[in-house]
Amino acid sequence: MTITRWSPIHDMATLQNRLAAMLQDFAEPSADREGTASSFTPAVDIYEDPQKLTIKLEVPGIREEDLDIRLENQTLTVRGERKFEKEEKEENFHRIERRFGTFVRSFTLPNTVDTETVKAAYEAGVLSIEVTKRAEAQPKQIKVAIGKQLEAKPAA
What we know:
This protein is of the alpha+beta class. The protein has a domain of 95 residues: Sandwich (Immunoglobulin-like). The chain has 2 helices and 7 strands. The strands form 2 sheets. Strands 1-2-7-6 form a 4-stranded antiparallel beta sheet, with no helix packed on it. Strand 1 and strand 2 form a beta hairpin. It is flat and about 95 Å long. The protein starts with 7 loop residues before the first helix and ends in a 23-residue tail after the last strand.
């Protein structure tokens, strides 16, 4: 009879690797689950300044008519499709690394933006969407009087 040393750390690492592999399968939709040839997720940058919120998506190779931008309630949804060029026969390719197919990205906008003033522009493969902030949400500068007392108003 041999004694086997049990390592709970090793078992936890194995379990963690198995769970990560399962979750990776769900994170990358396959053709069987989605019903489309393929899909991809474009990279996005979101930034904000005092006047507006800007969302930029990398979508090179997508024509303007293949983009659909919708705003419903406070949710901005961008859909698009990058089509595979049928110029060459598939068997002539040595490597295909670019992703083709459809994508959908949705963003919940904060209540501080004015959903009536959405602008979108597409240039050099980058889709830029700007949403201005409401006037009441923009910061206001308050002048501080130095060396003077504020006049107190008498209570009514």
